[in-house]
Amino acid sequence: MISSRLNPARILRGQPVELAPYRIAWLARIMYGTAFEIVVIAVIISNAVALAILTFDGVAPSVREVALAVDSIALVFYAVEVLLRIISYGTKPWMFFRSGWNIFDFLIVISVPFVDGNAVVFRLIRLFRLIRLFRFLPEVRILSVSIIKSVAPLLSISVLIGFLLFLYAMAGVYLFGDDDPQQWGDLGVAMVTLVVLLTLENFPDAFTAGIGITPLALLYFLSYMFFIVFTVLNVLIGIVLNAMDQARDEEVAHQREEAQARDHEDPQAELGALQVQLDTLEADHEARGARIARLRAELNALRDDA
Question: If you classify domain 151-263 with CATH, what class do you get?
Answer without folding.
Answer: mainly alpha
